[in-house]
User: Fold this.
Amino acid sequence: MNANRDPIDPIEVLQKIGWEEGNDLEFKSAKGGLPKSLWETYSAMANTQGGTILLGVEDDGTVSGVSDAIKLKGDFWNTINNRGKVCSNLLTDHDVAVIESDTGRILAIRIPAATRFQKPVYIGQNPITGTYRRNHEGDYHCSEREVSRMLADASDESADSLILEHFCMDDVDMPSLQQYRQRFASFKPTHPWLNTTDQELLSKLGGWRRDRSSGQEGLTAAGLLMFGREESIREGMPGYHVDFREKLSDDPAVRWTDRLTLDGTWAGNIFQFYFKTIQRLFADLKLQFKLDSDLFRKGETEVHEAVREALVNALIHADYRGQGGIIIEKYRDRFEFSNPGSLLVSVEQLFRGNVSECRNKALQTMFMMIGGAEKAGSGIDRIQKGWESQHWRYPMIRLHMQPDRVYWRLPMVSLLPAESLTCLQKLFGTSVFDRLNENEVQVLVTAEVEGGVDNLRMQQLMRKHSADITKTLQKLVSLQFLVQEGRGRWTRYRLPDSVHSESDSVHNNPADHAESMGISKEELFRLKEIAKPALDKKRLIPRHMERIILSLCTECFLTRRQLADLLNRNADGLRTRFLTPMINHGLMVLRFPDKPNRTDQAYTATEKGKSAVAGEEV
Assistant:
């Protein structure tokens, strides 16, 4: 860092021009004019969640300034409006501004998130070679598969309306279709569609279609997914996978107490998966509730309605040609839902509600006709309302990339658990802690309960503007109640390390750096179980150690320190002997690929690495 200058406060800098800190923030030097990487970042931010670029600021946050801000601003507009350089300009005049600072001028550029109809935003003239996205604080070049998914999502045609060549009524599991008809009749007994043949009913629902221009006719992707036989679905949708997992045992050796997946013992379609799963999710919910014969609305509590909404949400918004399939998990203290694909609206728009953007519109219609979904864009409201009725912590959403996945966590935990308040009072001192306001207490409780906190999570919990939340978080950092990691969209805050060690002893839980990344206790036990062979043996065959490392990193990023703690090995030795070679062989990737020497660098397994683990297990 430049010894003669202090890092800037991005919030104060942007407030000078009436802006608020964006979801993502990037500093660029611009000493030689517009940096080439500016356009990669423009593409990446537009294709992710938007953000702000500050030209004339070094990576450490010190201001080096721009020599001629007016010329630089002109060069920027000339380039972004050149279709040979950039495919589209998403900005208005109000999105570029010059900021005066004590040590130099800064050119600020505010980039909005592109809508699904504007994506992909790319540089040059070829979307395959010029499309970028943001993954933590780095821009990465999108694969052809990712670009293809963006182009598909930009289409007005629903993803599940595709007519599948060579598929017909023989591929339909007729018992499933008949059961659906019975559910339909129970929910809408006078509906005219009930007086049609099976193929006509499918056609009304969007499960069978005839293309007017080509004359092609047949089963659609929606029809096959909802009512198909398992073997037919596997042929038409090779990546299709559904999986319900129940973990109610405290014994770390017991991975699942119940599981429903594709094993040839049931039809395997979405309709059957829904009804088998919803009954498992509803079981053991200790709420006043009487289940009616249709497993829908009548007699449901708001919590049951919220759980049903979350399940249907995962099924109708999934990208069934994506990776990983639909995974539904039930724990003692939470439900988790994850599906392949990205959100078609921003997270902010999602929580504002009243917008219905569905990837699979025919599937949505099919669930609507039996009372399982609506098009009003109010699904998230119903989920939140259900959780509010019990004063539980609000549901949490996380977006993952490479591959794209949407994760929902519905914790059945109090907003302000008494044990957490007691723990924090003991750690910081009752007299000091009791002087904090309600919002500051909620932030610290969230950091303690969830292992860390960020702006987006607190927006979901506090319903306040992101700028106000940032001020609260920064105040707690200045008071040394929190430690800040990263900046911009991926800024995360955690309790200080000294607090973690004491907090864990209060809860009779061993200290572990995985907690600071939001890993649940169950996941922590699972990681330790995976690492056990390395703990039991000081010397392992290298390929066995590689397999353990890949297994640890299949579902999350772990730092060298965390891996070293789990494996009881030297962190530097792990990097030299295993991590670096595994990256070079494409088995692992870095969280920050453009900054390999960051102290908080973390690692996760690639699809190739996961396949290697699966291959050895077989």
